[in-house]
Amino acid sequence: MIILGMSDRSKRKSYQPKEKRNPPMPINNQTKKTSIAVLSMLICSVCIALSPWFALADQESTVREKYPNLSTGMFDGAVLAPLEKGMVLVADWLLISEADLLQTVAAEEPELQKQLAKDLFFVLEQVTIRRLLVREAKMEGPGQEGMDDENLIDQFLEKKFEGLSASDEEINAFYQKNKKTMGDASLEDLRESIRENLVEEKREEAVAAYIAKLSDSLKVRIDSKWVEEQNRIALDNPVDKARGTGKPTVVEFGATGCVPCDMMQPILDGLRKNYKDRLNVVFVHVGEEQVLAGRYGIRAIPAQVFFDAGGREVFRHIGFFAADEVNKQLIAMGVSK
């Protein structure tokens, strides 16, 4: 699985033992799986750590320089160069072809294939991470016969990052931060659910840091013509179109039926009314745009992401965000009514 499954709400990990409690909703279906499904959520964490990843020649263009809104950060420093026909990425021992990416897309559910086909650059990022982890897992030694890549990665990372924990202080802090959206549920009602989710979050961060470490020595080259075409295709979506308008943008990633998401809708309507032509306000339904949500590293909903007039992300928040707090953030960005 490449993209976070959004359709089966019954399998979605949740802090919600009572109907009235409405904290941010994790959107990963299988929290114990850290193959491509979870890797898609790790991209944002990985990209921060990978900024110095690539050793480059001064005269060569990089993905970041030429296509600043395309990469999630992982390939910002990758060199753009003509490669052999059909080849997309070359990095030391790592070779990835366009056929590899299309095969990955074809293995997905039909409703996701169309989305993935429009964002093969994102697929490339995830396939790269998967191959890095498979290679590392296989170097661990015997006992892996007959295992597919997904189970191999799961077993490897489960063993490598066992023993992570969440303290009572961390659990209490999470509860207090989200208390307004939790209805009548007490801390004791939610303690174990919160603990599990905080541990999973730490695990994701640990995996991201580990991938960054693995990647430090790679010298990545990506086919320049292929990237040019993928940039044209991938940016044809509401978020990237808004980022390219020269105006600040607020993007809400959410879903219908998610109570804190529904609570955000009047606030978004107020922003559209009060800021009119000075601000883009975009809503992305993560159940309908799994790939776009994955590309922007959305782990839980609702999520609000703020971009400045140059399309650069300056702030993000997870959970219900009161109107006063939204307006404070806009003022800090220099946006006035």
If you average the pLDDT, what whole number results? 82
β-sheet strand percentage: 5-15%
Radius of gyration, taken over Cα atoms and rounded to an integer in Å: 20 Å
Main β-sheet, spatial strand arrangement = 2-5-3-4
Biggest β-sheet, characterized? Answer: 4 strands, mixed
End-to-end separation in angstroms reads: 43 Å
Query: Given the C-alpha coordinates, what overall shape results?
Result: globular
The share of residues in helices is 40-55%
Structural class: alpha+beta
| Structural domain count | 2
Which residues form runs of ≥5 with pLDDT under 50? 1-22, 29-58
Q: How many alpha or pi helices?
A: 13
Instruction: Write down how many β-strands occur, each being a DSSP E stretch of 2 or more residues.
Output: 10
Element order, helices and strands?
A: EHHEEEHHHHHHEHHEHEHEEEH
